[in-house]
Amino acid sequence: MSVELPEAMILAEQMTKTLLGKQIKACEMRDYVKLQKIGFINKDIREFDRLIGCKIISIHQRGNVIRVQLNKKLNLVLGPDYGADILYHSSEESLPKKHHLKVGFADGSYLTIRQTGMGMVYCAADNEVNNLYVVKRDFSETPSPIGENQFTFDKFSELLDRRGQNIKAAIVGRTAVVVGLSNAAFQEIIYKAGIHPKRNTSTLSDSQKRDLFDAMMEILNARVSSGGKENWLDLYGEPGRHIPVMGPNMKDKNCPQCGARIEMIAHGGGQVYFCPNCQK
Description:
By secondary structure, the protein is of the alpha+beta class. 28% of the residues lie in helices and 21% in strands.
């Protein structure tokens, strides 16, 4: 399950409360070759040994990227885009059987990270971190829809008008006008706004753009307040409580608003569920 902006915000907040000041005693990598070949883990695994003896001094999050900053000018960069289990363990009794990275702290606690899909686990020095693709992508000038005061409806509307592209490309991916969202959030947002997944942003009326903006704010903030998506586990292994209003969970079901049969199309590199009656 993808980790999007709301879940990354929750993780970063929990990591800040739990990990700040901890000193790393040991690092262990396992089952990393596949991710290593595509550049999501350091080519030289021994670079993770640089973390040993370091203390965590700050944690920064933007989009779905988390930067764990340590002393000695080092960083652990986590980009759990397509799914990851990032878990804290107060002792070794609860350690999972599988992980990509296991960090042992001097106080006997642990942090384990296992990518369940494509995503980054990377050790980088301060002078290297800004060259990482996920950092360039999410720690950028592209606005974050929640967590930052600069994101307004006027700004959102201006960006939609400037791009003039398919609505999915405007919300998800390289040309998106916001950071941190993927197909899961997209399906919920456009359903709530009553917009068909194949609409172009140039065809949206001012009221439809307002509906889209309001739906985005409502869905994303609801996910944060609900502890993330259902079937997603937070830092302490607790599942989220947010049940999507639209997505794969609506397969073979009827629209709760109008009763029409929910349809699915392959669109923008993924499957999109929508209501053919409510979304125009």
